[in-house]
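Action item from last meeting closed. Structure (82 res):
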């Protein structure tokens, strides 16, 4: 990531901005190998190739984050204390 892009907070970035595997790992504060594993398993954000390089977009990463957040919420509410 170049310094000008790096200085823009994630929430202020345009949905079409391209992100590399390294960018995604940095944004999610996750090891790069975890992001690679997610890609291999098909469980992470969607990546695509331009030439020989892999990219995702800010919008796709936001969708991935939203899906993870929704998946972690319980289907039923918390049990009430009796």
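Sequence:
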């Amino acid at each position: 990531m170049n310094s000008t892009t790096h200085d823009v907070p994630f929430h202020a970035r345009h949905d079409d901005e391209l992100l590399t595997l390294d960018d995604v790992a940095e944004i999610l504060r996750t090891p790069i190998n975890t992001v690679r594993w997610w890609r291999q398993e098909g469980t992470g954000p969607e990546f695509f190739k331009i030439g020989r390089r892999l990219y995702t977009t800010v919008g796709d990463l936001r969708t991935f984050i939203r899906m993870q957040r929704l998946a972690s919420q319980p289907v039923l509410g918390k049990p009430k204390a009796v």
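Note appended to the action item: The chain is about 45% helix and 10% strand.
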